[in-house]
Amino acid sequence: MRWEGQRVTEQGDSTFAEPSLLPLAGLVRTVRTPDFAGITFHEVAAKSVLNKVPPTSSMPFSWTINPFRGCSHACVYCFARKTHSYLNLDTGLDFDAQLVVKINAAEVLARELARPSWNRDHVALGTNTDPYQRAEGRYRLMPGIISALAESGTPFSILTKGTLLARDIPLLAAASHSVSVGVGISLALMDPVLAESIEPGTPAPKARLALISRLRDAGLPCGVMAMPILPWLTDGDESLDQLFGALAAAGATGVSAGPLYLRPGSREWFMQWLSAHHPRLVSRYEGLYSSGSYASREYRDWLSGRIRVFRRKHGLTAGAGFFRNLTPTELPAPATPGTPGTPGYKGTRAPSDARTPAPPPVQATLF
């Protein structure tokens, strides 16, 4: 393994390299820099960046790209935490601070897209870790990735919490003239204090709302993934009304919303956070998720009903609106009121003057 003297030689760069303890294929160097205190970058030369989605998957796309492994957004609930255990790293702090960077992602992707066998299938970015986390400001991988996809005629979508995406709006707008480009913002809560606690490395909710508006002003569609809705924390009528109202005001083209998903790897980390910040809810969550990674069917059905009420109230389309073209079906009937003892229940009813809006035009939807 070559380490180039364990040192970076760029002028004016206080970055330094150090020996790595990780047996990573293609490892070039391990780097820490004062600009990213507490974070270690493991730079690798990837052999491939296009990931084939297993045919058994329910995902509505066949290919993904993840320029990074691990994510400094540090969302406590992130379902991708389990993937860090494959590197012999823990799914808690290591996932937040030990980041693998595919430094040659754009070049490798261009070669893969140039193969005669490539069918220009849709490629999804941001499905595992966020491509616009802070590290992208240092490595600038996305401009090359976007250009490679657009120049090859490959449609693509991006899902992110990162406002750094604003840097690439001109590039995305230009790409949209030659290929289908979908953009989605992940935003599921409006409380800045809760956001700082549960997703401490992400831009504030107001900053993400502003990004939605900037994307729409640039003529790009922008759907929202309002996941996860947190039982007893963000599932009340007041919280949902505030969230969907803010998304509509920002110009979101559609919203997909759903409850917290607690797979192994993220479940342990989330429950540790819950015990520290909301200990009274621990036993409730243990009961709600007693059957596995999903909340109980009763809760999911109840939450779906409340989501329909507020999505309809604010004139938002079901579906995040940034993956594939489908003709929308008629919107569901108004939800029935919640029942006592159900998370988020406040004894409220759907607005009596709620009306079914006219069917929206054909549009894209992720799920």
Oligomeric form: single chain
The end-to-end span amounts to 44 Å
The number of distinct β-strands equals 14
Widest beta sheet: strand line-up: 4-5-8-9-10-11-12
Order of helical and strand elements: EEEEEEHEHEHHEHEHHEHEHHHEE
Q: Decide which structural class fits the backbone.
A: alpha/beta
Average pLDDT confidence is 85
Number of helices: 11
How many strands, what sense, and barrel or not for the largest sheet?
7 strands, mixed
- The shape is globular
Assign a percent range to the helix content. 25-40%
Task: Describe the protein in words.
- A hairpin with an 8-residue loop joins strand 1 (16-18) and strand 2 (27-32).
- With 367 residues, the chain is of the alpha/beta class.
- It has a domain at 26-179.
- The strands form 3 sheets. A 7-stranded mixed beta sheet has the order 4-5-8-9-10-11-12. A 5-stranded mixed beta sheet has the order 1-2-3-7-6. A two-stranded antiparallel ribbon has the order 13-14.
- Helix 2 packs parallel to helix 4.
- It has 11 helices and 14 strands.
- The radius of gyration is 21 Å and the shape is globular.
